[in-house]
Each structure stands twice: as C-alpha cells, then as structure tokens.
Amino acid sequence: MTTNGGPPLLEVEGLVTRYPVPRGVVGALARQPQRWVHAVAGVSFRLRRGEMLALVGESGCGKTTTAQSVLRLVDADAGAIRFDGTDITALGSGDLRGLRRRMQIIYQDPYESLDPRFRVRTTLEEPLDVHGIGSKVERRREAEEALRLTGLDPPELFLDRYPHELSGGQRQRVAIAASLVLHPDLLIADEPVSMLDVSVRAGILGILDDLRRRGLGILMITHDLSTAARYADRIAVMYLGRIVEHGPAREVVTNPQHPYTQALLSVVPKRDPRLRQRPEILRGETPNPVDVPVGCRFHPRCPIAIPECRTIDPELREPTDARAGHLAACIRA
Amino acid sequence: MSVLDVQDLHVWFDLERGGELHAVQGVTFELAAGERFGLVGESGCGKTTTILALMGLLPASASVSGRVLLDGEDMLAQGERTVAPHRWRDVAMVFQGAMNAFNPVKRIGEQIAEPMELHGIAEGRAARRQVGALLERVGIPAERAERFPHEFSGGMRQRAAIAMALACKPKVLLADEPTTALDVMVQAQILELLVALADDFGLALVLVTHDLPIVAQVCERAAVMYAGEIVESGPTDALYHAPRHPYTRLLFAATPDLYGEEEVVSIPGAPPRLDRPIVGCPFRPRCDRAFGRCVDDRPALKPVTAAQDAACHLNDVPQEVPA
User: Out of A167, A201, A269, whose CB is closest to B266?
Assistant: First the structure.
C-alpha cells in the first residue's frame, strides 16, 4: 500500500454535477420550473500516486458521473478538481488537451471500446500519432512495451491481430495497453472486469494492481464490493450522489459504520455455502436523484433512522468506533 | 421420484460455413420437486443451451438428442409435438434480460395472461384476477397490470417476468442469469423471492449463472459445466469445501470473496473450440494437475462420493482421493 508524500495526484473537493431533466414542449410552455438530476451532490476525495481508490455503489449513485467530471467529459457545477496541484475545473479545451494525455480511462466493455477495423498495432499507435509523439520506430517500441505490461507477450503475436481475433480478456488487455502508451499518471477503470469471464478477471485486476505498484493512481469504479475489498487500498461507498462512507478497504468491509454500507455488505453473496447469513435486504429501489430526500438522503430506507435523520444532512466524519481515516456520514455512527 | 430427469442431452448447431458445433455434450442431471439446483459455468459452456433445449426453444439450426423425463414422460420424444404441451405449463423460464421477455407494446397484465389462455387455465375476468394475485405474490401492486414494460424498473420487470413464468403453476422453473443485469440490493430481493416461491409452490428451480457465490447461497446442489459437459456435480457445500475437479476448485479460487485473504487466481488459456472433436480431457490445457492419461483419455462423469460426481482422472489415483 504505497502512500508516498507530496501533493495528491487527484484532489476532488465539494464536487457537484447535475443534469437538467428534459421538460418537454408542454412543460416548457407551461413554464414549469427546471428540475435537475443531482448526479453528484458534494463529493470530496483524494487519490495519491501508487494508490487505488474504489468508488462503489449501485447504479445511479453518481460514481460514473464523478469519473466523467474528473476527466472533464462533463462540466462540474460547483467544487474543485485539482490534478497534480493544478485546478482543472475551469480549464479550456486547449489546456485540457495536454492534460488528457495524463488521465486515461478504460471501460467495462472491451468489445465496444476497440475499433473492429483496426489492428492492435493501429489501436496502440494512434494515440501517439494524434499527439505527435515519437518517430515511427519509437511508436512501435511504445506499443510493444505497453503490450508486455499487460501480459500480451511476445507482442509480435498480437500486433497484427484484429479485435475479433482476440478473447474478451485479451481485448481488455489491449484496451489497457492503449491507455498506457501515453504514460498517464491517472487511470480510471470503469467496471473493468464486469463483462469478463470469472476465470480471466484476476488477470486483468492483477495488471491494474501491477500498474498501481509502478506508481499510477487508479480510480476504480465498481458495483462489486468483493473486488474492491480485494484490490483497492481505499473504498468510498456512494449513495445518491454522496460518499456515505470512506476508508481503508479492509476497514470498510470488516467494520462498516454506515447502515447503507452494512446493508450492501450483507447482501453480497459469499462463496462458502456454510456462510449463509441473513441478508439485511433494503426494500424498494434507490430513490431517483431528482427528488433527493431532505435530511439524511438515506433515511427513508434506513433501518436505524431516528427523527433527527429527517432534518440533519450528516457530514462525513470519523465515528468513535472507527480507526483514523475511516469516515461515515451518519449521525448514529 | 425426480420431477425432471435429464439423460445424456446433446445439442449440435449447424454452422453457416459448414460443420457443426457440439454445444452440449452429454449432460445428465435430475432434480426433485422443491429442490434448488445450480447450473454454473462461464460463457460458452453450454448452460443456457441446455435449458433452452429443455424448453424446446432452440433455433432451427440445432439438433438435439437425449431424454428429458418430466415425471417419467420423455418431453423430447417427438420434438415440438411433445414439448409444446409442457412449455410454460409444466416447465417455465425466466430470461436474463427481462426487457426481452416482454412485448414492448402490450400491457404487462395481458402478457402474463397469455400462457394461461394458451393452456386453457383461465380466461377473461378469471385470468385477470389470477394475474393480479400473481403480481401481488411477486411484490408488484395488482393495478400495475395495466402498465407497459418500459414503465417498470429493471427489478420490477424481472419480478413481472417471474410472475409470467408462474402463470400456469409449473413444476420446474428455469432461471437464466435472472439477476445478472441488476444491482446487488435488487439482486438480493429477486433471489429471496425465487427461494420463497420455490418453497411455497414446491417448484424445482434450476438457477443458471456464471456467479458461483449466488449458487453457493441459493442452491442445495449444483453442476459445474465446462466445454459443453458437466465436469462436477454435488452438494454446493462439497463443491466448495471438497471439490473433486480442478476446474471447480480454480473457479472458486478465481472468485474474489469479501473477506478472503488468499490470492485470487486466474485460469490461463481459454476453453476448447466446440466445432471440432475434443481429444482427452477438455480442461487439460488449462489444468494445473494434468498428467499423462489426460492427454488422450476423456474422463467420464462418475460418482466419487455418494452425493458427488466428477469427470477427472485424479479421482482414480488412490493418493489423490481424500480419506
């Protein structure tokens, strides 16, 4: 678990990102007030070089929007995103260009992220071409090195293949290799193994672990708590646009402080049939981020809510039962 | 007596470029009324093809052999003629993408009533009343029968799909990755519902999934499939604590566990192609325990304990067999 000194690679502070809800013609004519999807509603975290942070939560919790905001694929409405000490929240497209080289993302579906018409060689050399980096020979060498880093060794076996000639696991390796040729500092991995067969997942996660050891900061977005527990240094659990619990991965999993985290952990199926515990199943579905409950946003589904929870919007703080650096947003924790 | 008895099931697909793909290669299992049985494996192992064959829902390019006894009667004896009376009536299915199970332009209630009308179980007002009761049973307010599929969330659609599968009170429910597209909390709700229904209706449940922990939590027994065949079957407890096929052991070891401390393994290589004959053990190229005999002698699935079957030569090596 490397956590070296210096400023964090990525620092997100009070991030708010919202989308307008389409009103339709009737709504606009009737001058209905504009409504918003509060996708990210005040998220703060730091990521250091050589560290993997997992953003965990169910669909609609804002984990993907958080990542898109960091990459400046969507604009934040409030808050600050600092990358390597520089505030990038308001950078124009010209300044962003140089920055984008240093932040890369890999997606869930390796079948969609690779262009089926391109050989592996082209996929890997294109980013270098676009940024005008290196000579032909140097680009070739970068491509080969990236393939080796992702376990596609010897590279000559793979350079001339098309995506359809690769297995799902090999495609995801090529997608990771393509993100590495520009030597990024930050890698965002959005559900990197959820489309892959179980038997090849550890191979992909092992590569990410290896890159982390080499000093990359990795922000992993996942719904899979077991994977987060096993591979991430820290876990941030999101619910309706907020981080509700945040701490060292093992701490969060073994000593969860927020009732939402506790419920989530209780429903994760365990491998051992003898460990059939009574899951604490929350009823209903996550409320939609247009009508966020007042007070604690989790209170309508919370098994331990008290009247105060309807009025107090709890902040992340260190509960008394938790170790240093382990935070939860719950007045009862 | 078993309610469903699948004997030596084979499925071949004709390939457009010529030749055949032998997708299911001699699958045998049986299940008792009220039993929850898992069919586990990775993509392409033949698990979905197996249950589509049981439903008689394979495309025209498929040919099937073997016997599927429902209460002792062979559903496959004369193809569609003998399957059709049982489809939805005795054997029903829940699909992975619940959206695809429904016609987008028809109300949910009408669609759930369809199999009832088809099999002459109920019509008109009686059917509507039964649909309402079914919806309530799966946790959907009865008045939602008037809604269209797109007005339901993913979890609600899966509940509705389960209600539709139960419309004719079947004996066997085949669930193909019923929670794969769902969030973990909704997944827990759906699994809890399936278990409760299996208990209440005395349903035999076949849960098809790639997700071993789900099977470990829901099923009493399971079969692990690889390259079109069952390589091991038995109580889920034995599969986890005393696997007798290396693939079963490695598949569990490849699955990260919330509290597991040990290394998560990946299984190198890929499954064999099924469009050419398999020589020797299909798992041999990826196996960490393969030996000479595995090269050209294909192991058969056979009993290794009173309750457990495995297709692995290691079980013939005395020092390998646990006491």
Answer: A201
